[in-house]
Design goal:
With 292 residues, the protein is of the alpha/beta class. It is 36% helix and 14% strand. The structure holds glutamic acid. Glutamic acid binds next to loops.
């Protein structure tokens, strides 16, 4: 008989700022999901955004996790060491004819999104319609561009798009609807990969069996499931957990001015006790209000 497959989960913060209580909550969920069954918990630093990532945040993230009692297995994986892997996947998708360069500026995209026919938050596909000649001329003129996935083409490329299923431990079986996300960016103008591409490749490379993350990333899984199908990657089980909210029902996020984990750690609070409070669904004192 085969031994049971033990869960492998990960916490994958971007080192663009300090961790807050919501991060702690998410890391605990991922950690406990694996450890409860004797599985492995990994740490991945999502630092492809060179302009916003700061190495000093990495040490703080590690210290915060240890303080919470969340030890990870093995070495930390840094996305910045995997750029060649992302480039190769991008090349493969380009070879399949599923990518197109997008020259739009943020302002142009914002303007088209507010147009009467724009679907909120969805790229309207402006650059999809460019001819090869127009593309070549813009590239020659040095106009910066991102690479977008032609999602309709990609779905059509699959022999059986019906297979775009994933299982979520909370939402149940889900049929991916990648068209709902529009033509997402897979390589940014200012970064050699996008979140979607890097996270999908890394979850596969690290053998993640259960992706445990906040429900705010649920919609992204439609895209990740499509990329798995296109790149012959396994599909993990997902667990999109509810987000931590304050007493007012509002999501606890940085903008509420909540204290960072670091500030609470440095003032001498017990991190393990804080983690246990979160496990029990309680909000530690001083964290519970929008302007705490
Ligand atoms: N790096 C992402 C973030 O900090 C999380 C990625 C994921 O869990 O899929 O929001």
């Amino acid at each position: 008989m085969n031994p049971p497959v033990l869960p492998v989960t990960r916490f994958a913060p971007s080192p663009t700022g300090k961790l807050h209580l919501g991060h702690a909550f998410s890391a605990i969920q991922a950690h406990d999901r694996a450890r409860a069954e004797g599985g492995r918990f990994l740490l991945r630093i999502e630092d492809i955004d060179g302009a916003r990532s700061r190495p000093e945040h990495v040490a703080t993230i590690e210290a915060d996790l240890r303080w919470l009692g969340l030890e990870w297995d093995g070495p930390v994986l840094f996305q910045s060491t995997r750029l060649e892997v992302y480039a190769a996947a991008l090349e493969r998708l380009r070879g399949m004819g599923l990518l197109y360069p997008c020259f739009c500026t943020r302002a142009e995209i914002a303007a088209s999104l507010s147009a009467p026919h724009g679907v909120e938050g969805i790229y309207p596909g402006t650059c999809r319609a460019l001819s090869e000649g127009e593309r070549a001329a813009r590239v020659a003129a040095g106009v910066p561009y991102a690479w977008r996935l032609d999602v309709a083409e990609a779905v059509a490329y699959l022999e059986d798009p019906e297979v775009l299923l994933w299982h979520d431990e909370i939402a149940g079986d889900v049929i991916a609807d990648p068209l709902s996300a529009g033509d997402v960016v897979l390589a940014r103008k200012d970064a050699p990969a996008s979140y979607h591409l890097a996270v999908t490749l890394d979850d596969a490379a690290q053998g993640i069996t259960h992706v445990v993350r906040g429900v705010d990333l649920f919609a992204a899984t439609h895209v990740h499931r499509l990329l798995q199908a296109l790149l012959d990657l396994p599909t993990p089980i997902y667990r999109h957990h509810a987000l931590l909210t304050g007493a007012d029902g509002e999501r606890l996020a940085k903008r509420h001015g909540a204290p960072t984990l670091e500030s609470v750690r440095l003032r001498g609070d017990d991190g393990r006790a804080l983690a246990d409070l979160l496990r029990n669904g309680a909000l530690p004192i001083g964290f519970g209000h929008a302007n705490a």
